[in-house]
Amino acid sequence: MSYFAVDDGAHSHPKFMAATNAALGLWVRTGSWVAQQLTDGHVPGTVAKLYGTPAQARSLVAAGLWHGAGHDCPRCPQPRAGDFYMHDYAASGNRSRAEIKARRDQSAAGSKRHRERQAPRPAEPAAEQLGLDDAAPDPPAPQRAPIRPDWQPTREDVHAAQVARRDAGMAPLTPDQVDSITAKFIRRQLDDGRVAVAWNGRWREWAENERPAPQPMPGGNVVPLARAAGGSTADQRAAAAYQLAARLEEQED
User: Fold this and answer.
1) Is 43 exposed, middle or buried (0-12, 13-18, 19+ CB in 10 A)?
2) Spatial separation of the C-alpha atoms in residues 136 and 130, rounded to whole Å
3) What is the maximum alpha-carbon separation in the chain?
4) Long-range pairs for 93-101 at CB < 8 Å and ≥24 separation?
5) Tens-binned pLDDT, residue by residue, of the chain (253 aa)
6) What angle do CA 95, 7, 4 make, to 5 degrees?
7) 43-to-52, 149, 205 alpha-carbon distances in Å
């Protein structure tokens, strides 16, 4: 899955202020289409007509958000006649087609290796069937056991989970979040009494789907809304309403 980047300051950018709101709607919809189809910023004229009007397209070109054929912007490629190009598409934080395909191939290769490691191995033929009665015995099969309290994921485990989260549109985990998720994972396995030969694959699935709590901004604290407002119980809200009514009556008197 890929995404179309919109900067959080776009609402007040001079180019956005110069375009109409309807034209900006066309810009967002075609940007989503471009990201999905991996066109690297090129907007076919047919798609522009599908999602908007010629007047809206002209508004985007006039504001500098789109380029038509024959434009003079040195940073952007030329579109074909009748098509458009989204100004500074790559420089605005959008991934290129090659980058997205490389990430997808890397994720698919990691998933394939994981499946191969998890697949059961075929049983070896009995020694007597091969006339190998004197051969050394096979080593014992790995035993299923509870997870160790000090178990840690490998660098490959963390990398594969981060790639899968990015492809799913989720934020990557910070080192502190990796440590917190791992501690939570170990507690859950121990509490549930689960046993396994290896825990890497299960940890990856856990980390790929985990949604950690948002981190507080530097120098600040995350304060629950209800607590910041002085409580959220029904009695507290009723008391606040009563006090407000009393103050209003005093003002009228």
Assistant:
1) buried
2) 13
3) 109
4) 93/5, 93/7, 94/4, 94/5, 94/35, 94/41, 95/2, 96/40, 97/38, 97/39, 97/40, 100/2, 100/38, 101/38
5) 677 888 888 888 998 998 899 999 999 999 999 999 999 999 999 999 999 999 999 999 999 999 999 999 999 999 999 999 999 998 888 988 888 888 888 888 888 888 888 888 777 666 555 555 556 666 677 788 999 999 999 999 999 988 988 888 888 999 999 999 899 999 999 999 899 888 899 999 988 888 876 655 555 554 444 444 444 455 566 566 666 666 666 666 5
6) 35
7) 12, 54, 37
Q: How far apart, in Å, are the Cα atoms of 10 and each of 18, 19, 57, 152?
A: 12, 12, 18, 42
SS3 231: coil
Intra-chain end-to-end CA distance of the chain, in Å:
64
| Strand order, beta sheet including 42-43 | 42-43, 84-86, 66-67
CA–CA gap between residue 231 and residue 245 (Å, rounded): 19
Pairing of the two strands 42-43 and 84-86: antiparallel
Q: Which residues, including other chains, have CB under 8 Å from residue 153's CB and lie 6 or more apart?
A: 161, 178, 182, 200, 203, 204, 207
Return the closest-CA partner of residue 55 out of 18, 13, 11, 20: 20
DSSP class of residue 68 equals -
The answer to pTM > 0.85 is no
